[in-house]
Amino acid sequence: MNGHSEPISSAKRLRQMLSDPSKTVIAPGVYDGISTRVALAQGFDCLYMTGAGTSMSRLGMADLGLTTFVDMHQNASMIASINPSVPVIADADTGYGGPINVANTVKAYARAGVAGLHIEDQVQEKRCGHLSGKLLVSREVYGNRLRAACRARDESGSGIVIIARTDARAGKDTEGNGGFDEAVERLKMATDIGVDALFFEAIQNEEECKEVIKRLPKIPVLLNMVPGGRTPIISNDEANKIGFRIVIWPTAGLEAVVPALEGAYGAIKKTGKTPEEQRMGPGALFEVCGLEDLMAFDEGVGGKAYK
């Protein structure tokens, strides 16, 4: 015995955060190492790895289900490793196949240090939850996905938080089942199966926000805030008052970055140089991603390379 206590796992930390029914966990969307570092520097105590952001940043492609398990797992693993004490909730899309694939995804995310993930009920050829024309799998197939996820959580002993997402509000299955009531029924089924939290995608207005909380089982419910999407933007405080226990802001970082990049690259094209106001220099840039800490570590173990 060395007297050191075991560090608390990120999944356990997220569960502790969700154990207070009066509190709401706020998670900004991150998609790469720099966005993760910047969000951590702002003091957030939870992060959300956006699937749309992963698709755009890693593949340069719109969110139409082009990311594979490997793309998503590698990105989630890197993001979760930057500060393991801050829980990361990660998009896991459909689980990337049948029940065996779903179980593999859950166990791999858990081994990577991801605190929570969500599994949805779209077909494999999925798309962003705020686009039209979404096609769903049957309740039976969705239930099998969730049972696989919960069993993998339990068998792994990781306690990773399983979040059931339904796209039924703005999508339909092959039998034509969809809409608000179908979404509610699917999430009630998910609760019976044993998931830890619920994600009702594409809520249409503030009245529906209240109705969602009223009609869903009393386990944590996640609110997805996508400016310009189907759900009206409400503040974190308002979401908390309505009763949402997790609020994610998947595209917040991306929406800030794209205009900034357009300005910088546009200036080089038009004026032949970068804008004066953005000249941080390499030292300041590297400091965003831990330069001082890395140099201090090297010196602390006797290294002299970075003095």
Can you put this structure into words, describing what you see?
- By secondary structure, the chain is of the alpha/beta class.
- The chain is 46% helix and 13% strand.
- The chain has helices at 10-18, 33-41, 51-59, 69-82, 99-111, 139-156, 180-193, 206-215, 236-242, 252-271, 282-288, 291-300, and strands at residues 25-30, 47-49, 88-91, 116-119, 134-136, 161-166, 171-173, 197-200, 221-224, 246-249.
- Strands 1-2-3-4-6-8-9-10 form an eight-stranded parallel barrel, surrounded by nine helices. The chain has a two-stranded parallel sheet with strand order 5-7.
- The mean pLDDT is 95.
- GO terms for molecular function: methylisocitrate lyase activity.
What's the quick description here?
With 307 residues, the protein is of the alpha/beta class.
Kindly state the percentage of residues in helix. 40-55%
Total count of helical runs of at least 4 residues: 12
Q: Based on CA inertia axes, which overall geometry fits?
A: globular
| Range of strand content | 5-15%
Task: Summarize the topology.
Blueprint: H1 10-18, E1 25-30, H2 33-41, E2 47-49, H3 51-59, H4 69-82, E3 88-91, H5 99-111, E4 116-119, E5 134-136, H6 139-156, E6 161-166, E7 171-173, H7 180-193, E8 197-200, H8 206-215, E9 221-224, H9 236-242, E10 246-249, H10 252-271, H11 282-288, H12 291-300
Parallel strand pairs: 1-2, 1-10, 2-3, 3-4, 4-6, 5-7, 6-8, 8-9, 9-10
Helix pairs in contact: 5-6, 6-7
Pfam family, one: PEP_mutase
Catalytic activity: (2S,3R)-3-hydroxybutane-1,2,3-tricarboxylate = pyruvate + succinate
InterPro entries: ICL/PEPM (IPR039556), Isocitrate_lyase_ph_CS (IPR018523), Pyrv/PenolPyrv_kinase-like_dom (IPR015813), Pyrv_kinase-like_dom_sf (IPR040442)
